[in-house]
Amino acid sequence: MRVLRRLLSFPKTNVERTAIVLGCLILLLALVGAFLVPFDPMKIDFRAKLQAPSMLHWLGTDGSGRDVLSRLLYGARLTLASTFAVIIVVVIIGCTIGIASAFVGGAVDNMLMRLADIWLGFPPLILALGFASALGASLEAAIWALIFSWWPNYARLSRMVTADILSQKFIASADALGVPTHRKVLHYVIPNAMDVMLIQIALDISAVMLAISGLSFIGVGAQIPAPEWGAMIADGRSYVSNGWWIVLAPGIAIFITAVSFNVIGDMLRRELDPTSRRR
Amino acid sequence: MASLAPPTTDRPLLEIRDVSVALRTGNRTMVAGVSLAVRPREVFGIVGESGSGKTLLTRTLLGLQDDAYVAGGSVRFNGQDLPVNGYANKARKLLGHSIGFVPQDPFSSLNPSMRIGKQITEAIYLAKGWPMGAERTREAAIGLMAEVGIPEPALAFNQFPDQFSGGMRQRMVFAIALAQDPKLLVADEPTTALDAITQRRVIELILDRSRKHDLAVILISHNLELLRQSVGRIAVLYGGQLLNIVPSGDIGQSTIHPYTEALFDCIPTREKTLADIRSIPGEPVGAGFGLKGCAFASRCPYVVTACRTTDLPQNAGTASIFSACILGRGVH
Amino acid sequence: MRYVGQRILFSILSLCVLLFITFLLSHVVSGDPAIVAAGPNAGADKIAAVRQEMGLDRPLLVQFWIYCSNILHGDLGTSWFTRQPIASDIIRELPPSLELVFVAMVINLAVSLPLGLLTARYAGTTFDDVVRLVVMAGAGLPIFWLAIILQQVVAGQWRLLPTAGRLGFENRDFTGATGFTLLDSLMQGRFDVFADALAHLVLPAFALTLLFTAVGVRITRTAMMGEFRKDYVVLARAKGASEGRIMVRHVFANGATPALTVFGMQFGWMLGATVLVEEIFGRPGIGRYAVKAVTQSDIHAVVAVVFVVGLVFLISNLVVDIALFLLTPRKHAGA
């Protein structure tokens, strides 16, 4: 109850309230949207191709006669599930490396963090492009590719938080009491790292989603008949002059999702991060 | 060295009556009902604990406080009325030629990426334009630097602030303020960041300049002893209220406001034993504490019920000596 | 000067990491690089020959050494879809991309720096809120989608700017010494070609930069906010300096350094993002080259692009950092 009340006190402007409503709505649609779709998102019907939005096809049909709205709703699951898959794995891998690095310390710590620094600097999109094409283009390849280029973010962040906690007094007393390392991680590091991680995750959702749809658009992610949003845009490109809605709908979907999560991330940073009182 | 008798014949240079200052967010009144007058050539002190409103009041009066504004009262500077509406912009117009200001921290008050000389010539340029050409301006700046006691000013002219100590930097800030030939110099805790000897030197520099160039000075400090040795009159601020204006020579000798007395009791001197040094009981209230009655009532040893219910007396006539104590303490 | 030495050392270290990453991509992640290098239609004996030739039967560490020395000799392998050495492909494709990124960067700086400075000065006002909202929206626009929409609307519907390509039909035979059309046309005094090339650059550069500009405004704002809180701003105001003078002469001069470091990094990131733009606008460049290589499964060409983009990223960072160090007129105490 207290947590909920605290969460409800976060949004300060109507923009933030709208973003939260939209974000929840998008997540909900991604979860249950597939059961609501009026048409089979993959069913080709050339007689119905390139129909403009109508009462029957709310967002029109694409070049193969597939219902755009149905594809969009299916795509919500595909796009967001891939995004969360990337983020979950990256958080696990990154934090493991980061926390371990902070506990080990010394030269290993130094080297790992230097590596993360350098790795992090390289253009993530092109790194992921190389990785995905090396694996052979597919949505799974794109997911692994983004994990490959995104992990240093969380390694660095979790190392920073852990090192900060390890330097504090209560850890010294925990040491004196002989608290084992795994308990220190569970009871001190992870609870304290939660806020910072949450902010970073919220801000990364849109970045990862933009990257996944970008990779799919280029052709190294989801392959074209799949209703992933980036692939839908790539597919719709050939019809853009006589079927503008095919490209417009997934683009707007990406846009709304990305902006909503950006606003939410920004709000979380303001509310949770004590170092960023910006006004 | 303090001139004990305040000059009383001149018309005031700065006269503020019943001035109150409020914050822009929430319109909270932080300082209320302050009236005082500073005369030409006078060295005037303002003392108060941190949070008393002394910095807020002066910075707002100069138009340098973005998040606060003059909410009421009247301000006159050098015979010119400064209306409360759009006050900050009017006050800002006086900066740079009529009023000079020295901020608190010499380590951050100089632009780190601009050469010292450029910062001084910029001040001259902003006050007077380029009436004498770049070369003469440069010479004037170097002259000023020599005057405030910077060794090898011609060399320092081309150097950057981080090559100097805090005391040297504070002298440069003074050079900047003095470059504009102001009538009034406002220095906000100019020596707090410096060691005791440097403090002394910087203060002497200010007093010397005041004597030679008919400069009025407002010196703001939390250090009553420092002010007692340097200025003629001291205004005492507490909780956003003006409690006392006393000649510095009177402190510790005649009846003064209970708060000023308490402040004085905190100063260690040679005559006092450790037992004589008393801290004021209770917690200090911040500016804008509520403004009903006397802000010091909660800690005052002489407090009576009326202290908390009666409106604080105002220095309506901008008298040179004033006490806000309703019990008559501090009034000769 | 110790700073410069350290900075160069860090770049060399970064280069090693880059080589390690690209080696990982081309030799480990991609499965058998011999199959890749021989092409999809090669027989078993061809693959065996390639394996021997590339030294792939030797330990990984030796392979890494061979890989590094090849690259340092300028040998990035052969692309089997262009049937050219990849290095020469890239040398041909790099100038148009750099030109695009350069123009995008100019737009980026011209928008980010003033907006960041102004929103920092007027933080908390309606102006700040509106800019923040616009910036937030810009950060959520997919680059490739924006490129398609701009192409359709501005070029297709309104016919304000050319739809695609690098130069108009009438200038299709234009060549120059450097490969940078803007530069070549100026050197030859062909202002018509210059205008034509610039017109072709506007939309792709705008699409490319929007996301980066959104970040740039925020970075600049944060950097400048910190400066506005410092006492030297108060002293400048006390001097009677105007707000404009304070912003330009005092705050900007101090706050620009951290912001410009980020812009240096953005240069490399933008070069990477050309893969999302060039193909749409039918512009030659390494972005389109990479996309083509991807569709042809030419992994060596793709990895070579990864390497070159990474290299440009390292060089641009190094140049920006050293330039800022030399230009910032302040003693770096202790450095």
UniProtKB/TrEMBL annotation, chain A:
Q: How does it sit in the membrane?
A: Multi-pass membrane protein
Cellular component aspect of the GO annotation: plasma membrane
A biological-process GO annotation? protein transport
The record's subcellular locations are: Cell membrane
> Transmembrane ranges?
20-39, 78-105, 125-151, 201-224, 244-268
InterPro entries per record: BP-dependent_transpt_permease, MetI-like, MetI-like_sf
Q: Which UniProt keywords apply?
A: Cell membrane, Membrane, Peptide transport, Protein transport, Transmembrane, Transmembrane helix, Transport
Where is the ABC transmembrane type-1 domain positioned along the sequence?
A: 80-265
Family according to the record: Belongs to the binding-protein-dependent transport system permease family.
Indicate what this protein is called per its UniProt record. Peptide/nickel transport system permease protein
From TrEMBL, chain B:
Q: Where is the signal peptide?
A: none
Give the location in the cell. Cell inner membrane
Keyword Ion transport included in the entry's annotation: yes
Q: Which GO terms describe its molecular function?
A: ABC-type nickel transporter activity; ATP binding; ATP hydrolysis activity
Write the record's keywords in alphabetical order, separated by commas: ATP-binding, Cell membrane, Ion transport, Membrane, Nucleotide-binding, Translocase, Transport
Which Pfam families did the record assign?
ABC_tran, oligo_HPY
Entry-linked InterPro entries: AAA+_ATPase, ABC_Ni/Peptide_Import, ABC_transporter-like_ATP-bd, ABC_transporter-like_CS, Oligopep_ABC_C, P-loop_NTPase
Catalytic activity, as annotated: Ni(2+)(out) + ATP + H2O = Ni(2+)(in) + ADP + phosphate + H(+)
What are the residue boundaries of the ABC transporter domain, all occurrences included?
Answer: 14-264
Q: What GO terms fall under cellular component here? A: plasma membrane
Q: What is its EC number?
A: 7.2.2.11
Q: Which PROSITE patterns match?
A: ABC_TRANSPORTER_1, ABC_TRANSPORTER_2
Q: How does the entry describe its membrane topology?
A: Peripheral membrane protein
Top EC class, one word = translocase
Q: Which GO terms describe its biological process?
A: peptide transport
What is the annotated quaternary arrangement, including any partners?
A: The complex is composed of two ATP-binding proteins (NikD and NikE), two transmembrane proteins (NikB and NikC) and a solute-binding protein (NikA).
What family classification does the UniProt entry report for this protein? Belongs to the ABC transporter superfamily.
What protein name is recorded for this chain? Nickel import system ATP-binding protein NikD
From TrEMBL, chain C:
User: What subcellular locations does the record give?
Assistant: Cell membrane
Q: Does the keyword Transport apply?
A: yes
Q: Taxonomically, which superkingdom?
A: Bacteria
Q: Which Gene3D superfamilies match?
A: MetI-like (1.10.3720.10)
Membrane topology, from the record: Multi-pass membrane protein
Q: What is its main location?
A: membrane
Provide the alphabetized UniProt keywords. Cell membrane, Membrane, Transmembrane, Transmembrane helix, Transport
UniProt key word Cell membrane: yes
Q: Name one GO cellular component term.
A: plasma membrane
ABC transmembrane type-1 domain sequence ranges: 94-324
GO MF term list? dipeptide transmembrane transporter activity
Annotated InterPro entries? BPD_transp_1_N (IPR045621), MetI-like (IPR000515), MetI-like_sf (IPR035906)
Give me the segments passing through the membrane.
100-118, 130-150, 197-220, 251-271, 299-327
Q: Which family does it belong to?
A: Belongs to the binding-protein-dependent transport system permease family.
**PANTHER family given in the database record:** DIPEPTIDE TRANSPORT SYSTEM PERMEASE PROTEIN DPPB-RELATED
What name has this protein been given in UniProt?
A: Peptide/nickel transport system permease protein
User: Which species is the source of this protein?
Assistant: Kaistia soli DSM 19436
